[in-house]
Amino acid sequence: MFLSLVVVLVASGCMTRNPPRTSFKVGDVTVHAHVFQRGAFSPVMINVHDDENTSVLAGKVIVKESGGRLVELVHSGRRFVEFKLDGQTYRFDPNRIFSEDGIRATLSRRSYYSEPAHRVVKEFAAGFIAQFALDHEPVIVALHNTDGHGLTINSYRVDGDKSAASATLHASARRSVGDFFYVTDRRFFDYLKARDFNVTLQDDANVPDDGSASVYFARKGIPYLNIEADVSHLDEQTEMVRVAREMIVELGLIPR
Fold it and tell me: What tens digit of pLDDT does each residue of 195-215 get?
């Protein structure tokens, strides 16, 4: 696998591009990693779906304000990565590739499964983790967007389609159901509940292994939080990212 990296640095409050780029090669497709950074590398925020751009804008605001690093995967402007290998077209969800079962399931669901394709996707996942040493970070912040109608905080209720993943949840009466936190650390849940945000705590012991980053990092013992917001709610998501950073600092996971 040919690895490269597109680096976008934030220096003195301004974002500048560094033209040299290297990329992850997945079959016949190139997946770029854009890095936005100011000051220290932590906290690391990741965005893996190329059509969830409001979350990237919110992350950039907080990097510029307070420092940190944002890693954005860029390939086609679409949610799924599509590639060709040996004449066959494959498609996968880049947030379902962090386990053997996850890779098998996402290839099967989104296109077609084969062992060669499995190996290519597994190499990509391993390369992404290794390139940014994500499994050595004190905390991982994932940035995602919803449309306010499909996946919501209500999806994690007892009668919701994601109930198997949730140990408990708090639903705020004053916030949009599409704006919520998904966390793997009880401290995060308690903090965000006290601030009256929509938040659900992953049931690490029983959550199905779907290959998602939340399951991967939970099993590594690395605190993880996913910030979901409606694609039209830039201000709300920016507030959520800002509060998440404040929480991580207050809990002593990164320096002030």
Answer: 999 999 999 999 999 999 999
Residues 113-132 as b/e (b if ≥16 CB within 10 A, e otherwise) read eeeebbebbbebbebbbebb
Query: Could you give the maximum distance between any two Cα atoms of the chain, in Å?
Result: 53
Task: Give start and end residues of each alpha helix (H) in the chain.
Answer: 53-66, 100-110, 115-131, 186-194, 213-220, 234-250
How much is the average pLDDT of 46-68? Answer: 97
Does the pLDDT of residue 80 top 50, yes or no?
Answer: yes
Tell me 216's DSSP state.
H
Question: Given this model, what pLDDT does residue 22 score?
Answer: 53
- Kindly compute the dihedral angle of the four CA atoms of residues 196, 198, 204, 209, in this order, to the nearest 10 degrees: -170
Pick the CATH number of 6-250 from 3.30.1330, 2.30.30, 2.60.40, 3.40.630: 3.40.630
The SS3 assignment for 88 reads strand
* Chain length of the chain: 256
User: How far is it, in rounded angstroms, from Cα 169 to Cα 150?
Assistant: 18
